[in-house]
């Protein structure tokens, strides 16, 4: 499995552009870049610019993945740049799919909605899942309808739209969405840190999405108890509570999926898991008590480490990220991922040898 990086959290990517990003990734020994939007390759979808980025990646021996916009129609007003591409939002997304395919990019990121960090003090209402102007089931219905409208375009170009296990959607809902619209045009981008926000055990979540896994966002998490239930914070791979041998084993059958490290910007992106909120619980009809218990166990494990001084405290997790922390997050995660992959490979080799004997 290749170890790459997501462009959105890489320091300097936005200022310096796609070619710089690709060259910087290669300098760091990374094996690919997951651009969250094809507009990072060319803001106007200029064919020459998109092809130039694809050629640069090929010359450097890097995997190149890109993305389009959100596919929940209730979230699309937040992306006017996409609408401007085609006159309406769907036309803009179609242009992005076509432009990517022309450059040989057929695995495209997407997600449904957002987390409104400026509304964090509003609890569950910071998640678009809990908007009061439109119910979540209605958002899912509208999203499915929109994806069905894109399906013929995706089929015509041999492209997959790989929807992320983003902070607003459960893996259960996402699997149902893929199966309804069709796995020939939809896949899943598994984010190891987001699934806990929906009350899911990351290893169990990885196994659920495994049949449709086509891309990934990789990072570790700290879980801490709060008056609302739990809070999730982002950490480099190996610094948190995720079971990486089990997680990578769950992803292991997909050797062609790049492990794209998604880091941090200015903070560790605290998000609440509102276990004590009855409406939060009712808003998760697939919630598994066993998986919630596992998250509580992981939080207790992390807090014990923090009490011993072996992990960041709650105050330290909530503090602004230190200068250089964003790049350090990526570099350290890559080192640890390769160590875990090497160990996993050795274990699998030993198992094969024993079986042959």
TrEMBL record:
The keyword NAD does not apply. Keywords: Carbohydrate metabolism. SUPFAM superfamilies: Xylose isomerase-like. It holds the Pfam family AP_endonuc_2. Residues 22-263 form the Xylose isomerase-like TIM barrel domain. The keyword Nuclease does not apply. InterPro entries: IolE/XylAMocC-like, Xyl_isomerase-like_sf, Xyl_isomerase-like_TIM-brl. Gene3D superfamilies: Divalent-metal-dependent TIM barrel enzymes. This is TIM barrel protein. It comes from Microbacterium capsulatum.
